[in-house]
């Protein structure tokens, strides 16, 4: 089993929003954390065809380059009416400048073209896979998912990525309107976001969380 007591844990991402969420989730456990950007680690090309494959690829790359244990997330928005797109290409839909207003507009235009105007035709899912990798090659994975519908226009400026589009089932606020604590379930309930649900599995296994 991977031993987190051997040194800093590397968050294998250059995405500031994603790093911030993972740091927030790790904060209560007192683990020393470094980011891939902080360590000047290169971002590997995401050549996998699944969230799991890309998460493992990123975690392995940072673990190998740093000699430390690394945790990576690969996540995205899967829209039923679009055949699961943008899926693993969620970040690429935002273009080279990572402008997610462009990505959200693209999703909406495709839904409009399909006549997907009612909530039941706008079902979507946020999916996350966390991969924990040691420099020796050992890897463990933890999946998370949350279901919901897509709203238009986008609502809220919290979070990042497609959050302002996504209305999780059973809630009246989009992820873009929720605080980080609300998404993570901090102090008042079960994890809500896909990443927080994946982290919950990781924390139970490695951090003694209940």
Can you walk me through this structure?
The protein is of the alpha/beta class. The protein has a single domain (4-206), classed as Maf protein (Alpha-Beta Complex), CATH 3.90.950. The protein is 28% helix and 20% strand. The chain has 5 helices and 6 strands, in the order βαβαβαβββαα. It has helices at 16-26, 51-66, 100-113, 180-184, 194-206; strands spanning 9-11, 33-35, 69-79, 123-133, 139-150, 166-168. The chain has a 6-stranded mixed β-sheet. The model has no long low-confidence stretch (mean pLDDT 93).
Show the helix and strand layout.
Blueprint: E1 9-11, H1 16-26, E2 33-35, H2 51-66, E3 69-79, H3 100-113, E4 123-133, E5 139-150, E6 166-168, H4 180-184, H5 194-206
Parallel strand pairs: 1-2, 1-3
Antiparallel strand pairs: 3-4, 4-5, 5-6
């Amino acid at each position: 089993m991977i031993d987190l007591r051997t040194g800093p844990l590397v968050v294998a991402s250059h995405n500031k929003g994603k790093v911030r969420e993972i740091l927030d989730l790790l904060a209560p456990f007192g683990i020393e954390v470094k980011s891939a950007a902080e360590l000047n680690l290169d971002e590997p090309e995401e050549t996998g065809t699944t969230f799991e494959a890309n998460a493992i690829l990123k975690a392995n790359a940072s673990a190998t380059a740093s000699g430390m244990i690394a945790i990576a997330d690969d996540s995205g928005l899967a829209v039923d009416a679009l055949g699961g797109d943008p899926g693993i290409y969620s970040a690429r839909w935002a273009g080279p400048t990572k402008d997610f207003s462009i990505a959200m507009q693209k999703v909406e235009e495709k839904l409009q073209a399909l006549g997907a105007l009612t909530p039941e035709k706008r079902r979507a899912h946020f999916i996350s896979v966390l991969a924990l990798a040691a420099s020796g090659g050992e890897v463990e994975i933890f999946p998370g998912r949350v279901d919901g519908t897509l709203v238009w226009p986008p609502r809220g400026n919290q979070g990042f990525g497609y959050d302002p589009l996504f209305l999780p089932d059973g809630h009246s606020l989009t992820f873009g309107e929720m605080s980080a604590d609300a998404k993570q379930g901090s102090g008042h309930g079960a994890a809500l976001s896909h990443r927080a649900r994946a982290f919950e599995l990781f924390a139970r296994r490695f951090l003694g969380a209940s």
